[in-house]
Amino acid sequence: MKVLRIHPKDTISIRHQMLRSGKPIDSCIYNGDDDEQTFHLGAFVDTKLVSVASFYFEKHPILLPPYQYRLRGMATLSEHQRSGLSSELLKMAFPIIKQNLASLLWCNARLTAVGFYEKVGFERVGESFNISDIGEHILMTKKIEID
Ligand SMILES: CC(C)(COP(=O)(O)OP(=O)(O)OC[C@H]1O[C@@H](n2cnc3c(N)ncnc32)[C@H](O)[C@@H]1OP(=O)(O)O)[C@@H](O)C(=O)NCCC(=O)NCCS
């Protein structure tokens, strides 16, 4: 397994299969995908891209630290889940976020994925809320220690 930075367009197929199945492919293009401070990571098994995650320099309105990253589009193909791939993507992301002087990573986590986020060190913030067409989510955060 190898983790590499990938082009935004390379995230679309896995986003579509795992996060927006049956929805228009355009819904898999997210605001900020091409921004300079955005980065996208992919895990490859035998040269096949099987897991993706994207990181946006974006402050959440209710969270205090001035510099924050947002995690979106975290997904691993079904047959490769629970093999540690998403965890590896995050391990590679943390130092990059830190290099960009952001001290917090946040995401709107699907309730079905909360257990995963807790395993990798995120904490829940507040109550769950509904995102139309997708379902119940909860805000989760992970502190990134800046030396
Ligand atoms: C959630 C998801 C991204 C996790 O990816 P993954 O590559 O399977 O995660 P990992 O293998 O790195 O899991 C790390 C740990 O979390 C656990 N875990 C993974 N998914 C979990 C879940 N849904 N609930 C509870 N624990 C979970 C793993 O068992 C592993 O535990 P361990 O360290 O004790 O072995 C993946 O299940 C997925 O793509 N789901 C569908 C899309 C989705 O819902 N994405 C999140 C949107 S907010």
Instruction: Give the percentage of residues in beta strands.
Output: 35-45%
So, CATH architecture?
3-Layer(aba) Sandwich
Radius of gyration, taken over Cα atoms and rounded to an integer in Å: 14 Å
Structural class: alpha+beta
DSSP, total strands: 7
The top level CATH class name: Alpha Beta
**In which order are the strands of the major sheet placed?**
1-2-3-4-5-7-6
Shape: globular
Q: Determine the CATH topology.
A: Aminopeptidase
CA-CA gap between termini? 30 Å
Q: What kind of oligomer do you see? A: single chain
Specify the biggest β-sheet: 7 strands, mixed
The CATH homologous superfamily is termed: Gcn5-related N-acetyltransferase (GNAT)
Residue stretches low in confidence (pLDDT < 50, at least 5 long) are none
Structural write-up:
There is one protein chain. 20% of the residues lie in helices and 37% in strands. It is α+β, with helices and mostly antiparallel strands. The longest helix is centred in the middle third of the chain and has 15 residues, at 85-99. The relative contact order is 0.16. The mean pLDDT is 97.
Task: Sum up the structure in keywords.
binds coenzyme A, Aminopeptidase, alpha+beta, 3 helices, 7-stranded mixed β-sheet, 147 residues
Task: Describe the secondary-structure layout.
Layout (H helix, E strand, L loop, with lengths): L1 E4 L6 H8 L19 E7 L2 E10 L10 E9 L8 H15 L4 E7 L3 H6 L3 E9 L3 E9 L4
Parallel strand pairs: 4-5
Antiparallel strand pairs: 1-2, 2-3, 3-4, 5-7, 6-7
The structure holds coenzyme A (COA).
Coenzyme A binds next to helix 1, strand 4, helix 2, strand 5 and helix 3.
